[in-house]
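Key result, reporting period 2: structure in, sequence out.
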């Protein structure tokens, strides 16, 4: 992650921090959000490490013609956008009138839809904010004062349009079906978008993925983590039931009686499991 992206992420985290303490009912959401941001940041760091910047005065080297296949990744890092996207995806044509676009958003119960051309290529995205700006101009055509005229000049000009193509935001931010879920989550977070159109290599719409779907894919349920920890314990121990496992918000608590010589390797293996936030060792010596 670059210094600029790091500062942007810190600014975003500060802006989303509530002005008052989290209530007990909100704490699980806070923990899930922290785990989500950690996963996204890890994906961004890994991508930066895999793609080093070229030296000054040199062009970025081309990838080899026949690269060796990557080893299979562990879930959820191995999940791809195609595994979590919605199909089919709702869309509107570029010549759809303003009121029909508003009805389409209400009918689909979404906050934004891709705008496509006659060949189903995604040319932009029209959202509730675009329609609100249009509705505001219809209600009050003239904006008062120099600040009102200059503030978000592009949005003000765009709001005079009457069709999806003239109201939409472009160029669109899209992802590919084969893209990693973690990378798509970073794209959504960086662009501050709730929904991302999914396009094929020709830019044609094939689906849509939301932030909530990316979040669920990145953060596994505690029950799933517990199942994996218990399976791992069965591989490490001759008597798997000698250790009991409990998981809450990604924190694994291990209790029971066991030869202390076996504990360090077991705990290290558990810490390496995806989405494990911490491991609490309450194992007694046998």
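The corresponding designed sequence is given below.
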């Amino acid at each position: 992650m670059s210094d600029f992206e790091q500062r942007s992420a810190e600014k975003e985290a500060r802006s989303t921090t509530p002005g008052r303490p989290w209530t007990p009912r909100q704490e699980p959401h806070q923990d899930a959000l922290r785990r989500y941001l950690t996963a996204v940041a890890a994906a961004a760091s890994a991508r930066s490490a895999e793609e080093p910047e070229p030296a000054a005065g040199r062009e970025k080297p081309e990838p080899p013609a026949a690269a060796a296949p990557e080893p299979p990744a562990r879930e959820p890092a191995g999940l791809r956008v195609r595994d979590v996207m919605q199909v089919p995806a709702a869309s509107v044509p570029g010549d759809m009138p303003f009121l029909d676009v508003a009805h389409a958003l209400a009918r689909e119960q979404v906050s934004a839809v891709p705008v496509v051309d006659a060949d189903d290529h995604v040319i932009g995205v029209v959202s509730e904010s675009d329609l609100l700006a249009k509705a505001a101009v219809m209600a009050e055509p003239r904006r008062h004062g120099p600040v009102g005229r200059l503030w978000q000049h592009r949005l003000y000009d765009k709001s005079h349009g009457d069709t999806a193509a003239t109201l939409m935001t472009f160029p669109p931010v899209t992802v590919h079906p084969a893209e990693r879920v973690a990378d798509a989550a970073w794209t959504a977070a960086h662009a501050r978008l709730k929904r991302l159109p999914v396009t094929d290599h020709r830019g044609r719409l094939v689906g849509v993925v939301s932030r909530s779907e990316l979040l669920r894919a990145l953060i596994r349920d505690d029950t799933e983590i517990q199942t994996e920890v218990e399976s791992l314990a069965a591989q490490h121990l001759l008597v798997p039931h000698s250790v009991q496992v409990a998981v809450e918000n990604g924190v694994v608590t291990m209790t029971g009686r066991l030869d202390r010589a076996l504990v360090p390797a077991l705990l290290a293996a558990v810490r390496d499991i995806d989405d494990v936030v911490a491991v609490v060792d309450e194992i007694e010596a046998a």
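The CA atoms of residues 263 and 283 lie 8 Å apart. The chain is about 45% helix and 15% strand. This case is discussed further under Risks and Mitigation.
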